[in-house]
Automatic annotation (TrEMBL):
PANTHER family: PHOSPHATIDYLINOSITOL-GLYCAN BIOSYNTHESIS CLASS F PROTEIN, PHOSPHATIDYLINOSITOL-GLYCAN BIOSYNTHESIS CLASS F PROTEIN-RELATED. Keywords: Oxidoreductase. It comes from Tothia fuscella. This is NAD(P)-binding protein. SUPFAM superfamilies: NAD(P)-binding Rossmann-fold domains. One of its GO terms (molecular function) is oxidoreductase activity. The keyword Oxidoreductase applies.
Amino acid sequence: MASVRNFNTRYYAFCGGTAGIGQAAAFALAEKGANIAVVGRTKDLGDQTVNILLSKGASSATFIKGDLSTVAGAQATAQAIQAWCPRLDGLVHSAMTAFSKKIVTSDGLEFAFALQYFARVIIDSLLLDHLAASKDGRIVHLAGAVPKSIIPDLDDLQFEKHSFSFWKSVLGTHNLGFMFLQEAATRWRNRPVSLNMICVPSTKTKSMSDPNMPFLMRVMGWFGTKPEIAAKNVVTFLEASSITDADRFGVMYDPKKLTVSQPGMDEGKAAKLWSITYNLAKEKGVELSAMRS
């Protein structure tokens, strides 16, 4: 990943790009002249971010208003990105959350599952052809290096049968993402796309200081690193002139190293989650043809 791409004719979308690590990564690519779209819920923050992106040198910048915690919002976001650009060179998911109690979305889904896993998969799948059209489309999911044992029950992903667990909910979504990546590495390998989950350190962001965040998480945020430092591996992955085949689908567990590893999740569970995800999206009215068996 030594040499870099030419950015003036490239298009990048940042879901959660109006704050934190996603915004920092967007700023870095703006300085290289990229065309950038940032997705968020608040228009004022979106407009502010667009103005900064343009001042930093972005060839173009736009704000897409989207609620990534709902199925309709995720689908609408993908459609808006498709309408914005002729092809997509990079897609970054940085929207994250953490609540000490269970919150259910309007779709009847547990909030962390909806935002940190389901919306990402919906958008990735709906934009797969758009990413492939660039001949080298790259997807980034921000994640945390959590123990592999922290996985919610795949038959009870919404915590309807078991008591809600912060650890299995919020942290477990990272492992769900690793499982999705592992299965995508097999099913999408013949497409000209890459998917990396990039683990980031504790970072001083607005979400990490949210009063609804568990106290321990807020403390970690207080002593965390700056967003622009946490975004370093994201930027490097997006700007590299090429990605080796071995590194196309993998996880960067260490924020201080550019080392891509395989997730090593249970193959049977990964395949089961893929099927569950496809069927759940269909149940909610979204056909994910990129995930069809």
